[in-house]
Amino acid sequence: MKTKYLKWLTLLVALVLVVSACQPAATPAPTTPPEKPPATLPPTVPPQEVATTEAPAGPKYGGVITFAMKEDVTTLDPLKAIQYGDIRLNGLVVQQLVAPDRSGKFVGVLAESWETSADGKEWIFHLRPGVKFHNGADLTADDVKWIFDRILDEKSGAVMRNTYLNIGLKVEVVDPRTVKMTIEKGAGPFLSYLALLNRSGIIHRDSYDAEGNVTKLIGTGPFMLDSFKPGESYTLKRFDQYWKEGEPYLDGVVLKVITDPVVRLNALRTGEVDMTEELPLADVKRLLDNPDPNFTVVVYYFNSGARLVMNHTRPPFNDLNARMAVQYAFDREAYNEAVYFGLGQVHNQPFVPEDVWYLDVPMIQPDLQKAKEYFQKAGLKEGTEITMLLMPNQKDAAEIIDAMLSQVGFKVKFDIVDAAAWNARGKALDYDLLMGTMTGIFDPDRPYGYLTPKSSGNWLVGGYSNPKMDELLEQGISEVDVAKRKEIYKQVLQLVQDDAATMYVLGLPWVEGWRNYVKGYRPGNAPMLMMMDASEGLNTTWLDK
Predict the structure, then answer these.
(1) Pairing state of beta strands 510-515 and 503-507?
(2) SS3 of residue 509 by DSSP
(3) N or C: lower Cβ tally within 10 Å for the chain?
């Protein structure tokens, strides 16, 4: 194993990967809308049957895009959305009050404007006029209150319920177009809660059946759910009464479930699909160096991260020395090369460098000698066995992690389980190590909030607990001034490293590819096919064929 690890380090020195220089630029979104379509569009035909025409002067209407997504949808209910398939679907159909733009600034979506009290505990949202649900009903303040009441209901199973309960959220109707929200705390990240991956998306109450299940997803987005076959495909069609006049350009979208990345790439090559996500990284690297003339592959980044998690609630990692041994033994660059072909963004925090919340806190560098010293201070014996939980799609990480930690004295046993077992055992803190990932990060409370036992996601940082951290996190959510919050979270991030609370390893490389006749598309700032602020994405995409 040591020989293999040294091989990785040699490769690391030999390879100089300048990803930004070799990745193709994303196609810009159209700036001039085409002529408005007739009220009734002609019948949709499959993409492969659309007649090829000469390149138009600008965007045009019509056609259906087939997108290959890596996993199935697990729920139609956006309030329960956790998996990427859920988010890909509801991001095209459902919208929320506010969302971040590309700069990270929160802007209105279904809320046209808002104001807040000086202490940030009272918020008044004014709804955008003329917004209709897919069933033709007008969006009103009562619909907004109904959704938030449902989120707060214990029976709903809503992902955001505990978050809103913890801040004491109350929602009132002021008039048909005005909603008042009051909170007891959490003013700093409040807008980010409302914006988190459509988990507070406003859908019509008729979406739910008598048992409380979403059987027909009725949102306000540019596309409406027409039909679906779980495990196979989800067919969306253009919503002609969408509140953004002239959008979308497409007649529809088909989300096709293809779980194998190699099969997804082949489907893109043959034209079976028009767009796809998450291709084999070895192939991505080759395609960046030698682009295919028929399609574009883009690697892009947004706030996200893989993090190495140590279980603080049991030996050996309830001892700071044992955690520090791992922190100094773990080589992020080598991990990036071995698992992500150098395409990840090595970091010590899950924010891209250009984000307002990126913090100037130096990253701890690997030091094998220090790692061994901490291992000895922990009183551990050579060959100390630790168990790491892995999901099947994380198997590539096993060899390099074992190589790094075995040099210190750990013997890593890998337990590969499915996603359901990974979550169940994780929540039960039945592991020593695991590698977690996170997306949908628009505020520092999202990643760092897990670092208090008060958080339901505390298991995702190994049950870490420190009263000093609790105090800092409480200050962070109470403060509304961005500059002051940044100073607080710099202390948080420094304490993360001092305590080896968890290890933020790298920003994930997100990959999408599309045939060259797909125009006007630009990847978003979350794992969605359009920007949550409704600015661009598949809503402004058109077909030049």
Answers:
(1) unpaired
(2) coil
(3) N
C-alpha to C-alpha distance for 150 and 285, rounded to whole angstroms: 45
Range 303-507 has CATH code 3.10.105.10: yes
Is the previous residue joined to 189 through a cis bond, with omega within 30 degrees of 0?
no
Topology agreement, domain 78-82+93-207 and domain 303-507: no
Residues sharing a CB contact under 8 Å with residue 430, sequence separation 6 or more, in sequence order: none
Position 521 scores a pLDDT of 97
Distance CA 149, CA 169 (A): 10
d(CA 78, CA 91): 9
Write down the CATH superfamily of domain 78-82+93-207: Dipeptide-binding Protein; Domain 1 (3.90.76.10)
Q: What is the tens place of the pLDDT at every residue in 291-345?
A: 999 999 999 999 999 999 999 999 999 999 999 999 999 999 999 999 999 999 9
Name residue, tokens 């979403």: 214
Comparing CA positions, the residue from 256, 209, 201 lying closest to residue 230 is 256
Distances (CA, A) of 206 to 138, 203, 437, 439: 13, 8, 34, 30
Question: Phi-psi category of 161—alpha, beta or left, where left has phi over 0 and alpha has psi -120 to 50?
Answer: alpha
Q: Is the pLDDT of residue 26 over 70?
A: no
| Distance in angstroms (rounded) separating the CA atoms of residues 351 and 441 | 8
Average pLDDT over residues 435-447: 92
Domain boundaries, the chain: 78-82+93-207, 303-507
- Burial of 146: CB neighbours in 10 Å, binned 0-12, 13-18, 19+: middle
Please give the Cα distance from 130 to 137 (Å, whole number): 10
Per-residue pLDDT tens over the stretch 249-297: 999 999 999 999 999 999 999 999 999 999 999 999 999 999 999 999 9
Angle, alpha carbons 343-103-194 (nearest 5°): 100
In SS3 terms, 109-166 reads as CCEEEEEECCCCCEEEEEECCCCECCCCCECCHHHHHHHHHHHHCHHHCCCCHHHHHH
The vertex-452 CA angle with 446 and 458, nearest 5°, equals 75
Give the bridge partners for 184, in sequence order.
Answer: none
Q: What's the CA gap between 205 and 216, in Å, rounded?
A: 10
Cis peptide before 261 (omega within 30 of 0): no
Cα-Cα-Cα-Cα torsion 146, 151, 154, 158, nearest 10 degrees, comes to 140
DSSP 223-285: EEEEEEETTTEEEEEE-TT-SSTT---SSEEEEEE---HHHHHHHHHHTS-SEEE---HHHHH
